[in-house]
Write a structure and sequence with these properties.
69 residues; mainly alpha; 68% helix
């Protein structure tokens, strides 16, 4: 996992806000990864380039939106 991906994973894990144990969180992530891989293998979803996706997200974050404080 790249540094940015690891940082994003920590942010997501922290956002759960419940009292799950690290083992429960890891098991949930593993189940989700397996679910996503199976969907990819079935052709239901396409892979996205991580760096390109992060650039797009960062550009959206910098762009002012109407009604945004």
């Amino acid at each position: 996992m790249t540094g940015k991906a690891a940082e994003f994973a920590v942010i997501l894990t922290d956002s759960i806000g419940d009292e799950s144990s690290p083992e429960q969180v890891q098991a949930a992530w593993l189940a989700e990864a397996k679910r996503r891989l199976a969907a990819y293998d079935r052709g239901e979803v396409q892979a996205l380039d991580f760096e390109e996706t992060m650039r797009e997200l960062m550009a959206k974050e910098r762009r002012p939106e109407i009604g945004r404080p």
